[in-house]
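Figure 6 in text form: structure in, sequence out.
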C-alpha cells in the first residue's frame, strides 16, 4: 500500500507540474507573442492552437492533476499530509472550474467565428474574445497550479519521512 500511496502523490505532482507549465507558457510566451500580431494572425493562430491542444497528452495532464490529487488524498493515511493534499486538490479543482467556465467558452466562441479568411470583421471577433479577461484568468491558473505543485512537492517530502 505504501508504494501505491507514493505513486499516487507522484502522479498528482507530475501532472500538476505539467499543467503549471502549460498555463505558464501561455501566460509568458504564447499570449504576448500573439498579442503583437494582426487580427487575422491572432484569430487563425489561436484557433489552430486551441484545436491542437485537445489531445491525449493535454487531457491526461488536465484530468490527471485533479483525479490524481483526489486519489492521493483518498489513499492518504497520515494526517501530516492531509493539509497539503487537500490544498492541492482545492487548487486543482479551482483551475479546472476556471478552465471550463472562462477559457473554454472564450476559446469556443473564437473557433465558432469561422475561417479567418471568411470573417469580415476580424477586429470585432478579436475584441469579443477579450484577451485581457483570458490572460487575467490564466494568470490565476498559473498561480493556482504552481501553488498546488508546491503543495504536492511538500507532500512528497513529508511522505518520504513517514514509514
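Output sequence:
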Amino acid at each position: 500500500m505504501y508504494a501505491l500511496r507514493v505513486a499516487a502523490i507522484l502522479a498528482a505532482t507530475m501532472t500538476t507540474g505539467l499543467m503549471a507549465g502549460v498555463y505558464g507558457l501561455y501566460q509568458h510566451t504564447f499570449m504576448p507573442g500573439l498579442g503583437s500580431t494582426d487580427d487575422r494572425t491572432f484569430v487563425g493562430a489561436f484557433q489552430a492552437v486551441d484545436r491542437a491542444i485537445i489531445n491525449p497528452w493535454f487531457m491526461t495532464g488536465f484530468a490527471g492533476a485533479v483525479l490524481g490529487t483526489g486519489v492521493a488524498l483518498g489513499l492518504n493515511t497520515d494526517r501530516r499530509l492531509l493539509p497539503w493534499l487537500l490544498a492541492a486538490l482545492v487548487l486543482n479543482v479551482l483551475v479546472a472550474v476556471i478552465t471550463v467556465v472562462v477559457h473554454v467558452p472564450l476559446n469556443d466562441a473564437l473557433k465558432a467565428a469561422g475561417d479567418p479568411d471568411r470573417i469580415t470583421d476580424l477586429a470585432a471577433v478579436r475584441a469579443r474574445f477579450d484577451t485581457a479577461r483570458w490572460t487575467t484568468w490564466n494568470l490565476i491558473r498559473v498561480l493556482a497550479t504552481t501553488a498546488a505543485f508546491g503543495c504536492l512537492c511538500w507532500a512528497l517530502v513529508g511522505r518520504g519521512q513517514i514509514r
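Caption detail: The chain has one domain: 2-160.
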